[in-house]
């Protein structure tokens, strides 16, 4: 893997081991190279960010200052805030089992923010729903440089270090010392309530579990990691065509794909079409990472079409033809 082109942008999602990571990063990079953005009132917020971003309200000046001076920027901010200045390749975050994250978030608020309401009331408040999903705010999750798992923190940290050619050490801070076990035990009613109000977080976590294994294999073997996904289509086009994206951050070349039915190739595709979201989120190739494919009329209803990386044979995803 190539060494990082600074700065590294750490999206700090509450109660996902982020404090341990950011403090360790400060020890590694040096305090003068780490810029915090936890809002205008937080004492941790970098004074230059406070002056440019919050007092003068000039995000461009603030962002350019960060690019010039910082090696690591973090805060409870969503990805799009610094996406114009920092490539998605340099963005990292951790996600956590939503049941544990929500409960830990609640415990944190009762200890440090004088929150007096019940756990059920906490879960029902809109500001505490799907907080992990909200951190991406429209960015395709697979575009984020690295998504670690809180439950596999040491392993995640080792992969980050190898991927970015850095050496951040493992720390274990900001934990609830009153908790007797490593996991919170929730009642059936509490589990059902959390699931009801955090559907997006659960989907994100399931995605992250699968993606972690894919990226781990790529990082440990020093092989390219293809990022991909489906993009928005009109409801009437579903099952009749596919619009998607694919990118290899280790290359400026467009990803070559094949559309297959079974083992038979039915089309060659190149992920080189413009996607505005990819450009706005600073994902790769100035947004030219999209592809489109209209299913041939000869394909019958119910036919499975797979989209495969040319050369490696890796199946990215499939779709079913609907006539």
UniProtKB/TrEMBL annotation:
InterPro entries found in the cross-reference section: Heparan_SO4-6-sulfoTrfase (IPR010635), P-loop_NTPase (IPR027417)
Domain of life: Bacteria
Predominant cellular place of this UniProt entry's protein: membrane
Membrane topology: Single-pass membrane protein
Coiled-coil spans in chain: none
UniProt keyword Transmembrane present: yes
Keyword Glycoprotein belongs to the record: yes
TM segment ranges: none
Compartments, as annotated in UniProt: Membrane
Keyword list, A-Z: Glycoprotein, Membrane, Transferase, Transmembrane, Transmembrane helix
PANTHER family: HEPARAN SULFATE 6-O-SULFOTRANSFERASE 3 (PTHR12812), HEPARAN-SULFATE 6-O-SULFOTRANSFERASE (PTHR12812:SF0)
Name of the protein described by the UniProt record: Sulfotransferase family protein
Organism: Alteromonas stellipolaris
